[in-house]
Amino acid sequence: MGSLLRSKEMKLIRILVQPEAAHVSIKMLGESGFVQFNDLNSHINSFQRPKVNEIKKCNDIERKIGFFESQLHQEENEIKLVELPKEKIQEIEEKEIDFVDIQTEQFVDELKQSIVSREDTLAQYVDLFQLYKSLEKANEFFAQDTLESELEKNKVGDLDFVLDDNELYKGFGELRHIIGVINRDDMYSLERILWRLTRGNCLIKHTEIEQLIPDLITKKKVEKKAFIIFYSGDLLGEKVEKFCQTMGAKLFEISNSLKERNEMIEETKGKLDEMRFLLTKTNTYYLKNLETINSHLAHWKAKTKKEKSINHIINMLNFDTTRQCLIAEAWCPYDHIFDVQRILKEASENSGALVPTILDVIDSENRQKPTYFETNTFTRGFHQLVESYGTALYGEVNPTPFTIITFPFCLQLCLEIQLVAVVYDGRYIILLMGLFSLYTGLLYNETFALPIDFFGTCWKPQSNSTDYELVSPNCVYPFGVDPTWQNKKNELLYMNSLKMKLSVVFGVSHMTLGIFLNLSNAIHFKRYVDVWCGFIPRFLFFMSFFGYMVFLLFLKWSIRWNERTIQSQKHGILLINTLIKFVISPGSVAKDVEIYPNQGLVQLILILVLVFSIPWMLLPKPFVLKANAKKKERKLKLEENLNTQENWEPIDEEKFVDKSDKSDKGDKGDLIHSSELELVSDPDQIINKDETLLDENEKKLIENDVKEKGEIEEKSEKEEKFQMGEAVVEQIIETIEFVLGSISNTASYLRLWALSLAHAQLSRVFWQKLVLLPLTTYSYIVFVGFAIWVFITIAVLMIMETFSALLHSLRLHWVEFQNKFYGGEGIKFVPFDFNLILKEEMDK
């Protein structure tokens, strides 16, 4: 075990480590990525765990890092975020996170000060710039000589309005004005509402400001307009001024004198130059701070994430009764136990701990083990497709080795255009899709709906007839479909028959592989009842009908029907009629439709096997399971009686004995000790070299803990009693599901034929209507049609159709294939690995 076909062998280890060595040990284990820690404090609230303050500190640092990143994203055009390669990440010391906390806090204070200074300077600059533009536009407004006439034209003529609001127009004889700047999008609303608010007793003039002005709220540059409002009346002026401020307009007081306005323009221009210089300096200082932060940001993120993950693991550890030792429990691949031993020894030496770290391999017979498959760049993508359905049970067959071939092949049975290979972007899934698309394109002899004449043809037209005849009776086209079938009257009938039969052959072969993989699982887990009452009747049922159907397909292809002596068989036999009569009238085959000698007898035997296999699947297994349960119960009672007469004795600590997979109930306490963690060449030879270093309290703790664990497991086994009713119902469901599923699953593979047919017909229609038809016009329409044909081929055939075929292929693998053997109810092995943690963080 340990290949891609089955998961690596896993062991449950217990680590006893001194508190002063815990941080270094976990850090080094995280760098190796060999173990998956179990939470021994799941019953304790996260706020009551020992490292809660350290985790809070890391959260505060991450919050400050998030603040830095938000500022950097605002200046992404000026500063490019630095991504630190993982090989350059500095080693973390236990107290280094305190330095990171202090350093980030200092940068936060400096950055906030520079932000406040920058925003204040920018606000002053924007106000001065808007004042400067308002002064320029004011001269243009006052230069117009038609203000009196326009005000008179816009004045309301109804005297009742004036009488009703006579206070509003107090001091009406004096013409006044308001000048300001507003967002361009709000100008129309301001103008309309003011006209209604003043009943037309105001004159509004506005003009565009050529330059974009920064918005202090959104930090984006926006278009703005300068405006001037002429009105008469004190109360009316107050109302106009308040409404303009409500709309977000910036108002300015500007003199009516041209001379004073010109003086203000010169004065504002000088202040504007000074403020622009100050803004440049402030912005430079702000960007310099950001660049300094950016150079450290990746280091801070990596260190904080690693330190936080280490503290999370420490929170999962438990103290012994003396509070002098931390206990960790973890899953580890058997191949890496020696590596973990070496790492713990090195960590213990580096930390200066007085007592070495202890490594035990403990019994995990009654624990569900995590599943771990070692993949590479080629197999990883296919394995992710399989795990999207579910993680395999520990020791269960992994469909990935078969999916590597069957998935792209099944996909490309639907898509036979050769251009799929062009889409290759470096991913191995697409590469194999391209290779199999070439194969199926050659098999069907279809490239953009056109055949290619590689080997000539075996057909020639008959004289004075539209029919064709064979060039030679022994002529066989070497590979694929003869190109002569293109554009013939019976082409669609022939291609449909061929593709449908190929789909059935592939489907039956695929599901048969799944049935044999189920046998492999049963043998591996030593569930021999599943072999005799599961695999054998299922295989017989499946082969007696569906296997026989595939046999008839190949037999029909191999027969020269024109040489048959029976006249009715000169043009072949419809297999669908043969299969119908095979079920309806078993053993009875007419001579004019008999394909091979003694066909009736063979079919009678097959139908009897088919019928007999159904009760074989249904009935024996529950009774066998009940008998096994009673036998096991008697054995447990016998062991219980023996255990009451014997005292539990601890294992000899001078030997490493791994009985985790072979031990019986009396071996629950078998441990693997390594007090000094002496380096050996074989994990099965880990030796407790100096047992005097092991404190007597710790020995007692280990023995009591293992003894209690064994008692709990024995008690749980006693409580799990066999239920005959549940077993019968479960077996009925499984039998019905397999019998009916065999029919529906085989029919599901016909979607390969349906998709291939639709794809071929679409290709042909596009070619005929967009390429061949425009060629008859001898005009520029040829170029237009060809361009449309290229676009539709890529968009419809290569993208949309490929996506559709991908979904169908996934379904055929997840449902029709994997339901024969794959439970997908396992627990994925997720090691404590800094590389994975940092990769997830960088991907965000």
Automatic annotation (TrEMBL):
Q: Does the keyword Transmembrane helix apply?
A: yes
- Which terms does the record give in the GO molecular function aspect? ATPase binding; proton-transporting ATPase activity, rotational mechanism
Keyword field contains Membrane: yes
Task: List the signal peptide residues.
Answer: none
InterPro entries associated with the record: V-ATPase_116kDa_su, V-type_ATPase_116kDa_su_euka
Query: What does the record say about its membrane topology?
Result: Multi-pass membrane protein
What are the BP-aspect GO terms?
A: vacuolar acidification
Gene Ontology cellular component terms for the protein in this record: vacuolar proton-transporting V-type ATPase, V0 domain
Give its localization: Membrane
Question: Any transmembrane segments, and where?
Answer: 428-445, 502-519, 539-559, 571-589, 601-619, 779-800
Q: Note the Pfam families from the entry.
A: V_ATPase_I
Q: Enumerate the UniProt keywords alphabetically.
A: Hydrogen ion transport, Ion transport, Membrane, Transmembrane, Transmembrane helix, Transport
Q: What family does the entry list? A: Belongs to the V-ATPase 116 kDa subunit family.
Please give the function described in this protein's UniProt entry. Essential component of the vacuolar proton pump (V-ATPase), a multimeric enzyme that catalyzes the translocation of protons across the membranes. Required for assembly and activity of the V-ATPase.
This one is known as V-type proton ATPase subunit a
- Species assigned in the record: Anaeramoeba ignava
